Amino acid sequence: MHQADQIDISGASNHPRAKRMAVISFLSFNITIGCIYGSFSVLLAAVQSQLGVGPTLSTLGIPAVALSTALCAPVVGWLATRYSLRLIMLIGSLLLVAGFILLSLASILPLYFLAYGMLLGPGMAVGVVLPATLVTRWFAANRGKALGFVNTPVIIAAVPLITTWTLQAHGLQVAYLVLAAMSMVAVLGSLFVIDGPPGDTVAAVDGLSMVQLMSSTRFWGLTLAFIASAVSSIVLTVHMVPMARTWGIAGIRAASLLTIMSLIGIIGTNLFGWVVDRLGAVPSLVLVVLDGGVLWLLLLLHPSYPAAAVIIGLIGLHAAGVVPVFTAALSEVFGQESFSRAYGLVQLIILPFSVLCVPAAAMSYTHTGSYAVTVIAVAAFLLVGAVLALSARRRTVKLTA
Q: Which of 161, 180, 204 is the last residue of a domain?
């Protein structure tokens, strides 16, 4: 590793094994998200045929995962301060394998919900919270770049293609078994996890309790800024096509805006990881959320397709970039010893926002015949979030424990 990659402006350096931990974290996060979300819609019709149910019941698998993940994430964050990250990540990846194996055997609806709610949901909680926790412990320098790399959604782009081919060639049961086999890669990776660099004392430090975190205005400032960006991404992902239709953009052009948003988002995770290492995490979070608010206001102009492609692409850039920026900010402000608790707690707090924002946007459009109110509301949330994030600018905790 070159010295420029090893040392930041404060003189802090990373242990040689840090890169290995980043690769393991990348695999854990990507396999978890990719196998669960990348396969769901592809397999939905086959699931309905297998279980003899309609879309109303079959699509409840994802809400079951989301609810279970949100409820388990704070527990996972607390466990990470008490027990070995290797053990917890191993258990989490084994839950993924067990969940997909159970889905391959499920012929009745209760087993289907059991797999998603009791196995894949807790597995996802581990796969979301602990990779970032592991990187936070290992990277004192270039932490933003490392978090950007870990959160780059590469595998989720390949899973739909793999799953579609397997489903068509071998059927639903084999498709789920292939997902279980892919999850085994995360199991193997977990075996090589090392909790922290030699001499690391994070696991021995209590850090802030969840009650202390929730009583912190800086925690809420960071969290609400992150939630505003997440709401922006969710609303746009779900309502992009009908929203574009109100601008006179329809058909494949409207759908292509989602593709543009996703592809540019891959760049965003790495770009803003780099920005964090240059500007600092909290200023970067303010920048990401503030830019998002301004970009959303531009949607009120009902842009033409070329202009919409640029605006939506930039929104995707910022929405994807907020993940490494926010995780770096939590670590920077509250310290490594409090990170896993804080990040786990955020996953629970975000749940009602992520669940309610989609029907709220739909209701607004139904009553007004326009997405203008939704656009203004999301933009306002982002701009207020940027202001709130400024409350965390004072830093009293060092980057390293």
A: 204
CA–CA separation, 140 vs 135, rounded Å? Answer: 9
Q: Domain containing 140: what range?
A: 13-204
The reported pLDDT for the residue numbered 111 is: 92
Per-residue pLDDT, 12: 59
pLDDT on residue 401? 38
- Nearest 5°: CA angle at 20, between 16 and 22? 110
pLDDT at 208: 78
- Distances from the Cα of 334 to the Cα of 129, 209, 212, angstroms: 16, 11, 11
Contact status, residue 124 vs residue 65, Cβ threshold 8 Å: yes
Number of domains in the chain: 2
- DSSP track, 163-199: HHHHHHHH-HHHHHHHHHHHHHHHHHHHTT--SSSTT
Number of helices and strands (H, E) in the chain? 17, 0
